[in-house]
Amino acid sequence: YQSSKEDLELPLFDLKAIVFATDNFSFKNILGEGGFGCVYKGVLKDGQEIAVKRLSSSSKQGIDEFTNEVKHIAKVQHRNLVRLLGCCIQADEKMLIYEYLPNKSLDFFIFDQTQSMSLDWSTRYQIINGIARGLLYLHQDSRQRIIHRDLKAANVLLDYEMNPKISDFGLARSFGEKETTANTKKVVGTYGYMSPEYALDGLYSIKSDVFSFGVLVLEIVSGKRNRGFIHPDHHHNLLGHAWRLFCDGNSTELVADTLKQACNPSEVLRSIQVGLLCVQRSLEDRPT
Ligand code: ACK
Prior knowledge:
The chain has 288 residues and is α+β, with helices and mostly antiparallel strands. It is built from 10 helices and 11 strands. Helix 8 packs antiparallel against helix 9 and helix 9 packs across helix 10. The radius of gyration is 19 Å and the shape is globular. It starts with 14 loop residues before the first helix and ends with a helix.
């Protein structure tokens, strides 16, 4: 499923082919708004479906995110990461061409009432597993670890078979061999998923991604969106409450009971354990 991060080349697409594929960026082909511009659905002449991420702002932040996304995504290839097919940089246009994923994002599946009912436990488990594999691939290369920095339900897309693909690398950062933690004054990302040391002190590391993964697992299991970042002292949100119970030494059965999604209690328990352990480990090993 994977190849070396070194030896990938990035094919260039012709602007005319993309204009044709997206029906001149027609309004009806808009899939949604991404970090730095609109995402369009397109169909190439040979029938291949694509998603075109088009840089729409000329702001420094937009251009930085575009450049950053190419830099990171061009080097990776894994079945649980969205696949970049190439780019189109011509005239004033800057676009990234991705494989098209028909099942929307995980955000839609978890939080949309009618959809979340159809997410059975084996699918939830498959999704959690796939995200973990994608993240591990990003983190494991000792020469160049990639920290995603914005792992969340909206940035996980689903293919025809409901395999998850991590997307949106606009905020990613890479670490060299010796680096384990970095500090930034500009905290970017999404509050509900941010580890405390990153949200409060701007410190990020592989562990901050793992923390976000833990939150994501808890959301997949509970079907409830975490609002506000998880802190051991926060009682007011559901996940914070579950976390509190865990810290207080309560059994995971009690936590599961709080989350009350018991279609299949053993799957619930296993997933919750994984989620809470991720959150707990990242908190225990907070970089100082
Ligand atoms: O949840 P969605 O339907 O899935 O809305 C967002 C929107 O574009 C902004 O990111 C969708 N999107 C992004 N990349 C792709 C892709 N490769 N295939 C299908 N939809 C995509 C995403």
